[in-house]
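Comment thread on ticket #2218

A.B. wrote:
> Attaching the input chain for the structure job we discussed in standup.
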Amino acid sequence: MGKFRVIGAGIAFLILAGISCWATEKSLHMLLPVGWPEILVWGITIAFFVVASIGTKLIADSLMSSGFVENRKGKLWGGIFLVVFFWLIMSMPTNTHTFFYNDKIGSVISKDIETTNKYLQQVLDLGTSSTMALDEEGKQIKDAVEEQRTHIVRQFNGDEAPFKRGNGKQIAAHLEKINKILNSSIQQDPRYNSTDPSILNAYQVEINKALSHALRTHTISEQSVKAAKRQRNRLFALNDSIQDHIASASLTEEEIRQCEKELKDGYNIIASNRTFVQFDNAGDEELYTKENAETRTKRMASVIDVFFVDFLKGRYPGSFWYYVVLSILVDIAAFIFFDIAFMKKNE
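C.D. wrote:
> Ran it. Output below, let me know if you need it in another format.
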């Protein structure tokens, strides 16, 4: 019976250890820089799990043995050290991350695409609207110019002091103010005091031309509109394929990486036009506008961000604990079978 017990425990250990090592390897492979050989990551993963298992064996030997145990305290503390560093800090978080990632990545991608497309649509709508969208500085420039334009029209029509119609001296002063605001060079028509309406029309044309030129850097560019439309269409097309694969549970890492790239391009367009986007909340604004923004989809691939930042800061609902408990149970069961398989005969 003892032999069958050892063989059975060994098989159970290998199965559970295989599950744990698979989960750890997947999480580490997503975290490590591109180019790391997968076989090397597997080697690290297996080595760490074996060391953690040895740590639990040392703890069990020092606490459960009724006979003499050489250096009992040393084995106990050594085992605790190994378990803390190789399991509690390495294996358990990465396993939790993989279980959570596999279950949630589809919904995260879907939400990421939906939100990104919504903000890209805002850029597209504002950029093609008949009313020019302006940032705060652009609005100030336009308001200041329109104020001076109003004075010019009123001066020319005799509706403002000195209440004399025509191309008078005060118009030159208002044109000079416009030139300072727009860094332009609109000149007063030499036909002083003339009431010819073509003079006023010419001023309007020149002011419009100078204002349009000055506001080019304060509105959504044609290039941004084209980029937003192109990226929105790409994400729409990609989302159709992604939804089919999510429904059939056949979503691949290659497709996820493609989503990350397309989403990142969308984030960059939104960040470049942040002044014109009305974000739903402060979290979205921070996410899309910070330097070197990381997409929600990309962030999901990092065990550091998911477990050690978001989870420990309470950003996930209580259901996240299910994945933590699942990871702990798989590993503890593996450790128990390891201890049984390598238990001394006299124990």
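A.B. wrote:
> Thanks. Noting for the ticket: The mean pLDDT is 91.
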